[in-house]
Amino acid sequence: MLTSLPEPGRPGRSTVINVPELPEVEALAAYLRERAVGRTVQRVDVAAINVLKTYDPPVTAAAGRTLTGAGRHGKFLDLALDGGELHLVVHLARAGWLHYRESLAPAPLKPGKGPIALRVRLDDGSGFDLTEAGTSKRLAAYLVTDPAQVPGVARLGPDPLAVDQATFAARLRSRNGQVKGVLTSQEVLAGVGNAYSDEILHAARISPFALTGRLTEPQLSALYEATRRVLTDAVSRSVGQRVDASGRSASGARGQASKPSSDMDASGRSASGARGQASKPPNNPATLKAEKRSGLAVHARTGLPCPVCGDTVREVSFADSSLQYCPGCQTGGKPLADRRLSRLVR
């Protein structure tokens, strides 16, 4: 039986790139803390050879080790084995996801052209698949003795939910550029991507093309508060999805947002002591996507009314992505042209 969390979907009319960001990866980590921590890895099957980016230690070294923690570094999922002696670190890229299965066929996974890239089998017969849709295969898995050995992790800036306002402002000002691009730069702040940066900027009432070097102190303060509010709410929505015996969401139930996890001890707790609510059933796979969709104000809602001011949500398209914003809330009512031509609101 498949009991995993659903992949992020298409909330509105705009094309949405299914990139798991900080809240979704935190939800996966919380799910694994509840369901998988304490189990022993039976073996790891690699179906797509390009998914495994390391060879020493070999993937066979994971067999027989206990999964003792699950956390994240920005958008990287970190599974600790034997108290951190080994780490299976995963980056889901644009179209990757984790599917937990209560029962797996005993036969080894055969390499092929299907969506399954890697499978982790546990000693109770359950396990999870790492899958990737589409033809552009960027999902990456690393088996390392230290997460910092993963190049992408080593380059990460601080977690946006773990910094104070002064550090947040200093990080943004360390790179002069359009605030949308700086906010999504993983070297500046870890975990914010296209979707939540749209939401953060809308909540802060700042143009996505505003230059970080020209942001005022009140704007930086608004941006800091919006970042914490949007991400905390998204994590709470994602991690807090629970089901009752009928399979429906518990009335009004929302879990407490897990704190950013980096180092896990043998109990599966993060360094901050945060842990998923193991006393309740796992995250509800039927409602997580709907819950995420209900929390979006502008992202992927091109052509729909802004829930704050009623203006029409607009879009700026680029070669391989797009952004959404509200002119009424963010640009003084002026629509932004394609950035290659526009020199509007700074």
Brief write-up:
This protein has helices at 22-35, 151-154, 165-173, 179-183, 194-204, 217-239, 288-294, 327-330; strands at residues 41-46, 67-73, 76-81, 86-91, 96-101, 116-122, 127-132, 140-144, 314-317, 322-325. With 346 residues, it is of the alpha+beta class.
Per-chain topology:
Elements lengths: L21 H14 L5 E6 L20 E7 L2 E6 L4 E6 L4 E6 L14 E7 L4 E6 L7 E5 L6 H4 L10 H9 L5 H5 L10 H11 L12 H23 L48 H7 L19 E4 L4 E4 L1 H4 L16
Helix pairs in contact: 1-6, 5-6
Q: What does this protein structure show overall?
A:
The chain is α+β, with helices and mostly antiparallel strands and 346 residues long. The chain has a domain at 22-154: MutM-like, N-terminal (N-terminal domain of MutM-like DNA repair proteins), CATH 3.20.190. It has eight helices and ten strands. It has helices spanning 22-35, 151-154, 165-173, 179-183, 194-204, 217-239, 288-294, 327-330, and strands at residues 41-46, 67-73, 76-81, 86-91, 96-101, 116-122, 127-132, 140-144, 314-317, 322-325. It has a four-stranded antiparallel β-sheet with strand order 1-6-7-5, with no helix packed on it. A hairpin with a 4-residue loop joins β9 (314-317) and β10 (322-325). α1 runs parallel beside α6 and α5 crosses α6. The longest helix is centred in the middle third of the chain and has 23 residues, at 217-239. It is elongated. 45% of the residues are buried.
